[in-house]
Amino acid sequence: MPVKTFGLALGGGGVRGLAHALVLEALDEMGCRPSIIAGTSIGAIIGALYASGVSGQTIRKKIQKNIISRRDSWRDIFKKRSDLLKVVQTVAFERGPSGIVKPDLFLNFLLSSVHKQTFEELDIPLLVIATDYWKGEEVVLESGELLPALKASIAIPGVFAPVTIDDRVLLDGGIVNIVPYEHILGRCDVSIAVDVACTRTPGKNRMPNFWDLVLGSLQLMQEVTLSDKMKHRRPDILVHPKITDIPMLAFGKAAQVLRQSAPTIKEMKNNIEEILARS
How far apart are CA 260 and CA 139, in angstroms? Predict the structure, then answer.
């Protein structure tokens, strides 16, 4: 019986989530368009771009257009200058107890290619994961306005301010579900989950800085929770790019994320081909 549908779960991880663009580009090349997407944090943002009709290749090019790599010549950097200035201008900072970065303008820049305002307008059903602060439970957003849901899903405590939707105070979805693949199981023939957690290399006598401690500790808890979930039920294909020593908020290392993720994408394509050959 031929495989009919693919489901995709895109995990959170800050800048490391830019690897999702390579996953989507590879799926496009293979003609394996997902019929449903679930995303947490940056995974929700990339998922929203794709679900609105933006191809994986276009998302990848959009990312590369706004980063400077070691291969760029001075002429390349000059060409990118106007785009890089747009990125800088979209980041607004706010003082207060809730967060230090106001994501509205930044998200609007990332989602400038999305011409859909609501979940219902998307080309592919999208599930966005957030965390209810007061109830301490997962919230799955899949209807209504899209932007508030995405803002909630990336609301990392201490970095982005919480978002209120339907009288619920919502935080980053990665707190409770870093790779939400269970939400696509049973809704597709083949489930693909993408985990962009990084590998940390211990340095001799090196103490982590404040953000390394805070965000690194959060990742440790997420890894334990994900590992326990995997013991009960796994996705058909788990994609875990070998991303090393790139902190969640190190957006200056976007080029390294794409470079380090490339070999794992080839492995994913091989796994998909094996499944297709058996169907």
Answer: 32
Cα–Cα nearest to 258, from 91, 86, 61, 101: 61
pLDDT, residue 98, reads 47
Query: How many other CB atoms are there within 10 angstroms of residue 35's CB atom?
Result: 16
pLDDT means per 10 residues in the chain (279 residues)?
84 92 96 96 95 94 67 47 43 46 58 85 98 97 95 88 95 95 96 90 68 74 84 94 86 85 94 88
Name the residue among 52, 42, 25, 36 with its Cα closest to residue 195. Answer: 42
Phi then psi for 245, rounded to 5 degrees?
A: 55, 45
Residue 2, pLDDT score: 61
pLDDT value of position 85: 41
What pLDDT is stored for residue 165 in this prediction? 97
Burial classification of residue 163, based on how many CB atoms lie within 10 Å of its CB (0-12 exposed, 13-18 middle, 19 or more buried): buried
Q: Tally the residues of the chain.
A: 279
Is pTM beyond 0.90 here?
A: no
Give the DSSP per-residue string, the chain.
Answer: -----EEEEE---GGGGGGHHHHHHHHHHHT--EEEEEEETHHHHHHHHHHTT--HHHHHHHHHTT---TT--HHHHHHHHHHHHHHHHH-EE--SSS-SEE-HHHHHHHTTT----BGGG-SS-EEEEEEETTTTEEEEE-SSBHHHHHHHHT--TTTB--EEETTEEEEEGGGT-SS-GGGTTTSSSEEEEE--PPBPPPPTTPPP-HHHHHHHHHHHHHHHHHHHHHHH---SEEE----BS--TT-GGGHHHHHHHHHHHHHHHHHHHHHHHHH-
